[in-house]
Amino acid sequence: MLPSFSPAATAAATPPPKPIPGGYGAPVLGPLRDRLDYFWFQGPEEFFRRRAAQYRSTVFRANIPPTFPFFVGVNPRVVAIVDTAAFTALFDPELVDKRDCLIGPYNPSDSFTGGTRVGVYLDTEEPEHERTKAFAMDLLRRSSRVWAPEFLEGVDGMLAAIESDLDAGKGKEGGASFLVPLQKCIFRFLCRAVASADPAAEDLVDRYGLFILDVWLGLQLVPTQKIGAIPPPLEELLLHSFPFPSILVKPGYDLLYRFLEKHGAESVGVGVKDHGMTDKDAINNILFLLGFNAFGGFSVFLPFLILQVGKDAALRARLRDEVRAALERHAGEVGFASVRGMPLVRSTVYEVLRMNPPVPLQFGRARRDFVLRSHGGEGFSVAAGEMLCGYQPLAMRDPEVFDRPEEFVADRFVGAEGEALLRYVYWSNGPETGEPAAGNKQCAAKEVVVVTACMLVAELFRRYDDFECDGTAFTRLQKRQPS
């Protein structure tokens, strides 16, 4: 359990700052010990949970991967944060610099993005940040005209493939995996909606594009992730000890680049004509938005959502009733308007994001010396240049804020009191009550991610009376019976 704090104190009673507990251990050995704990002996959640309990503090010092021997210039030392109050410092551009720290102290080479430092690696004080963020927001605004129909067309193809596999008994133990069909759906609809480029125009892109993105993502992230496919000693030596070169995925990346250059000219032109970008920088930013932010995020988040709903029969019955009632008011059509009338569906989506955020870690480097405030006004002295590392899965299970924080409560965010808790939901690099802007780092697609997830749930219950899941496979799809 996380340590508990007394209710927030008044400003007059704010205690003086104190040193941050914890430490980094001996050179080489300390980072190695923490790395092995993080990957193998404890796992990320237990890694942060144990240290919070050991130091009786939700702010403490630790090392996080990656570390030696070949990560030149990477300092694994961080100030870890696992409570909602201190976590908010990560959203304050006056306190933290977000330059080149998307995934922590380790920063993949910009050769993975065609030599462009794309928007997410830029700090708000860098001149190019506002341009690239405005470009991303512009693309999303333009995509709103086709977002819902393109997504639902993709879902139609996904479910047809899953139904076929179930009917043919192709799945393991009678189930049909939804991972590849889901990724095909995500890839195709994102290309059409965001980049105005249809993968069907290029056979290689249509068939292999999603796998190219999987490898491209994996090579950048694998030094920070446990894979578990090979024995631990080999994984540490072969996957966690050095950064991977972009040359391994360059042919695939170049294929996607040429595809966007040829078929996504309309979206590229938005960056060039409206935001003063070069063709190269516009294409590389679109590819990152598609591949890392959207495709990568949805590929992690939506399976958690399907699994959570698919294993809870009582929740499915409630969701089905709400979806059917809302669709009756909108001529049976799933879309942006109809899902607004589904508070339980929306709350379920938020609760999945609270329990399993697609990006568990958020980082920022202190611009200056400042006092990091936790619950009750407890303060910790942070020095300029120190890396802050917020672990969201624990911060968003803070017992000071959430009742039954370790439980999945589908209707947690329903009603006025529930909606008030949304200010503590941080999955989008900002509070859910915040608004993305060119001057901040909050996810430009914050709202559309939630709406898209709601549409997926609504479409499932529009088609099916019930369904069940086992892991990442559907084991039963009960088609809707005529009323």
From TrEMBL:
Transmembrane portions of the chain: 286-310
GO biological processes: fatty acid biosynthetic process; oxylipin biosynthetic process; sterol metabolic process
Enzyme class: lyase
Names of required cofactors: heme
InterPro entries per the UniProt record, alphabetical: Cyt_P450 (IPR001128), Cyt_P450_E_grp-IV (IPR002403), Cyt_P450_sf (IPR036396)
Key word Protease present: no
Pathway: Hormone biosynthesis; Lipid metabolism; oxylipin biosynthesis; Plant hormone biosynthesis
Keyword Transmembrane helix recorded: yes
Keyword tags: Fatty acid biosynthesis, Fatty acid metabolism, Heme, Iron, Lipid biosynthesis, Lipid metabolism, Lyase, Membrane, Metal-binding, Oxylipin biosynthesis, Transmembrane, Transmembrane helix
UniProt function note: Involved in the biosynthesis of jasmonic acid, a growth regulator that is implicated also as a signaling molecule in plant defense. Converts 13-hydroperoxylinolenic acid to 12,13-epoxylinolenic acid.
Record-given protein name: hydroperoxide dehydratase
